[in-house]
Amino acid sequence: MADALPRVCIFGDSHYACLKQAQVRGLADLSGLDLEYWGHVGTRFRHLAFRDKAIHPTDDFTARRFAKFNAKGRLFLPATDFDAILVMGARVYVAPTILSLLHAQSHGPVVSAGLRHRMLADRMRGQMGYRLAAGLAASGPRVLLAPVSFPTEGVVPKPVLATAKVAASDPQLLAEYWALLTAIAAEDGITLLPQPADTVTAGCFTRADFAVAGHVARKDYEHKNPAYGAAVLAQALPILRQVSRGP
User: Fold this and answer.
1) 166 φ/ψ sector (left φ>0, alpha ψ -120 to 50, else beta)
2) How far is CA 218 from CA 123, 204, 221, 222, in A?
3) What does each C-alpha distance from 18 to 133, 135, 199 come to in angstroms?
4) I need a labelling partner for 161 at 20 to 30 A (CA). Which of 79, 96, 177, 179 fits?
5) Global confidence as pTM
6) What pLDDT score was predicted for residue 70?
7) How far is CA 238 from CA 28, 29, 163, 229, in A?
8) Which CB contacts under 8 angstroms, 24+ apart, belong to 45-50?
9) Structural domains in the chain?
10) Is residue 231 a contact partner of residue 149, using CB atoms and an 8 Å limit?
11) What contacts 158, CB < 8 A, 6 or more positions away?
12) Distances (CA, A) of 65 to 39, 75, 84, 91, 110
């Protein structure tokens, strides 16, 4: 039966844990997929490289760490083994650039459309995780990318950009930034998944309902809980289930 199912990998850093937990807790139904996970904490991403249509760790220790969390013990990730790959987090940050643009726009139309496009494209393409996703996409499988989410409400990002004026910015402006990011990713063969709208508050924060447990005491305003993982999977699964099984 598995031979007839789309072969899917969820690849990412520590942010992909919320997807795994969503599955474990029954918050998302991942049936209908021949599914694997391959990932590790983000510091290990400094030791990854893309070559020969695969993501390869650059040292044995990193290879073993990634293999530990994969059911098949994969030491590297061959793109051609999968019909689709969902890249989750993977140290791909778009929020800092969006916050910078919101801050600038709150002071008037000082950033041209061309400059907004250039800033978003350069910042996103300059990140290792994004380049890994682009390499996978160029190698055949359908690639979906869910970037690291907005910080959880209650924290002020550094540099201090989340002023009340920024938070009250025109929601349409934020939609335009996501549309630009989606178009940029499409140029690289990647389907970008914007942060689910119902997880966002004040324009540029994630609702505390989606924070990890004890996030204030732990000072963890970045990682998200299984409910957030379920929200991301709700976006991804209809696309993943449409992917055709390859030879």
Assistant:
1) alpha
2) 29, 21, 9, 11
3) 19, 24, 14
4) 179
5) 0.93
6) 94
7) 12, 11, 37, 15
8) 45/13, 45/90, 45/91, 45/128, 45/129, 45/132, 46/128, 48/128, 48/132, 50/131, 50/132, 50/135, 50/136
9) 2-240 (3.40.50)
10) no
11) none
12) 9, 8, 23, 17, 46
Instruction: Please report the sign of the dihedral spanned by the C-alpha atoms of residue 85, residue 89, residue 93, residue 94.
Output: positive
User: For residue 169, what are the CA distances in angstroms to 80, 93, 197?
Assistant: 43, 20, 15
Q: Which stretches of the chain are DSSP H helices?
A: 17-24, 60-68, 95-105, 113-125, 128-138, 164-167, 171-187, 215-218, 226-240
Stretch 32-39: mean pLDDT, rounded?
A: 96
CB of 230 closer than 8 Å to CB of 195: no
Contacts of 154-161 spanning 24+ positions with Cβ under 8 A = 154/205, 154/208, 154/216, 154/221, 155/221, 157/95, 157/96, 157/99, 161/99, 161/100, 161/102, 161/103
Sign, Cα dihedral of 236, 242, 243, 247:
positive
Distance of CA 179 to the CA centre of its chain: 16
The encoded tokens of residue 94 equal: 């778009």
How does pLDDT run across 174-214, given as a tens digit for each residue?
A: 888 899 999 999 999 999 999 999 999 887 889 999 999 99
Q: Is the pLDDT of residue 122 over 90?
A: yes
State pLDDT tens for residues 94-109.
Answer: 988 888 887 777 666 6
Triad 119, 120, 122: Cα angle to 5°: 65
d(CA 131, CA 157): 25
